[in-house]
Design brief:
Layout lengths: L2 H13 L16 E4 L2 E5 L12 H14 L7 H5 L2 H13 L4 E5 L2 H12 L5 E5 L4 H10 L2 E5 L4 H10 L5 E6 L11 H10 L3 E5 L14 H5 L6 E6 L9 E5 L1 H10 L1 H4 L6 H16 L1 H17 L14 E7 L1 H13 L2 E2 L2 E2 L9 E6 L6 H17 L1
Helix pairs in contact: 2-12, 4-12, 5-6, 7-8, 13-15
Length: 386
């Protein structure tokens, strides 16, 4: 393929309203940012608790750098597994009330590592159709029989499980769906896994730190536990730093240490990040007010946009999707909001199904009631221009 062909493909992507653009962030991540030379209120990030620029985390990262340097220098299995990594793994396991935990560099790497280590040619992976791309890629890379069911359709999942003759069965699902904001029916999923001798892998990237009485995530939210559960959560969203972890049975964790290629064959994350994350866990656990404020902001937003001609999808989480429909229209609405100093990303296929392009509005404890009021007012103004 020539570069001319690549250029033609890019032009075609642009013509369909599917070409993505990067904004240049010129300030710390927060509710109020400087982007592309302009000040704006941002409803774009997954910094749900407003910790990404918290001074206490900055100080902890600096302290970690003074103690451990900047880079890990090696993979975990060579000489990159620092004491701070070990301390964080123990703290994370305790935080989510599971026996053991293992750090990964990113959530994408964690999902790839888990699924490919546990499932192979004679196994089966069962997945909700709205799962994150990393879970789909993981299932394909595993070479297991890959079965997908319609979003939230437990009856369809049960039929697939009942018909499967696979040696090992793995149900994988987003705990909070990243583009819809709804919460997976974890207790019912667990019941199916128990009935059909399957494991349940939960990707709680958008629930960890936010759901549950102390931010323990979707398991705490529902009050469920089981040795069948494989729990993954990321640490760059509500926790405000970077990375991911897997928690569950000790034999599961040891299997990943021995077999997960995305853990074995990569340099460990800088130990200074583990120092920052230990500080973040303390804040998440102790400052319930952040989750309370976030809940109030979500409620205010939902009341504010009632009656708009664009439907708001049902979600009680910080992810509030406003469905616009067409690619060109969602880009126009997003640009009109940006012109008013309000940043909201336009989400288009293939991230979401065709015809369901949307504004993915992400609320944060760093926002104020006034910020939400500004967003609502801007949406109503743009609606009148349509």
């Amino acid at each position: 393929m020539s570069f001319t062909e690549l250029a033609a493909d890019l032009a075609a992507l642009d013509a369909r309203g599917l070409k993505r653009q990067r904004r240049l962030l010129q300030s710390p991540q927060s509710a109020h940012v400087r982007v592309d030379g302009r000040e704006a209120v941002a409803f774009c990030s997954n910094d749900y608790l407003g910790l990404a620029a918290d001074p206490r985390l900055v100080a902890a990262a600096c302290e970690g750098a003074q103690r451990c340097g900047v880079g890990a220098g090696a993979s975990h299995l060579i000489l990159g597994h620092a004491a701070s990594h070990h301390e964080l793994e123990m703290a994370l396991a305790e935080f989510v009330a599971l026996p053991s935990a293992l750090l990964f560099s990113t959530g994408y790497m964690a999902n790839i590592g888990i699924v490919t280590a546990l499932a192979g040619r004679n196994d089966a992976v069962f997945a909700d159709k709205l799962n994150h791309a990393s879970l789909n890629d993981a299932a394909l890379l595993s070479r297991a029989d890959f079965k997908r069911y319609a979003h939230g359709d437990l009856a369809a999942l049960e039929r697939l499980l009942a018909a499967s003759k696979a040696r090992r069965k793995l149900v994988v699902v987003d705990a909070v769906f990243s583009m819809d904001g709804d919460i997976a029916p974890v207790p019912q999923l667990l019941q199916l896994c128990e009935r059909y001798d399957a494991w349940l892998m939960l990707d709680d990237a958008h629930g960890f730190g936010v759901l549950g009485a102390t931010g323990g995530g979707v398991l705490q939210h529902f009050g469920v536990t089981s040795p069948r559960i494989i729990y993954m959560a990321t640490l760059g969203k509500a926790a405000g730093v970077a990375g991911a972890f897997v928690a569950g049975n000790p034999d599961l964790i040891e299997t990943l240490v021995q077999s997960a290629r995305t853990y074995i064959y990569t340099t460990a994350t800088p130990p200074l990040l583990a120092h920052a994350l230990l500080a973040s866990l303390n804040i998440i656990r102790s400052e319930q007010g952040r989750r309370d404020l976030l809940a109030r902001l979500i409620a205010r937003f939902k009341v504010g946009v009632a009656g708009l001609r664009w439907p708001l999808m049902p979600s009680d989480t910080a992810i509030q999707p406003l469905v616009i429909g067409g690619n060109a229209e969602v880009l126009r609405v997003s640009a009109a909001l940006a012109a008013r100093g309000v940043l909201v990303p336009a989400i288009r296929p293939p991230t979401v199904p065709a015809g369901s392009a949307r504004l993915r509005i992400s609320l944060s404890a760093a926002h104020t009631q006034e910020d939400v009021a500004q967003l609502v007012e801007a949406l109503r103004e743009v609606e009148k221009e349509s």
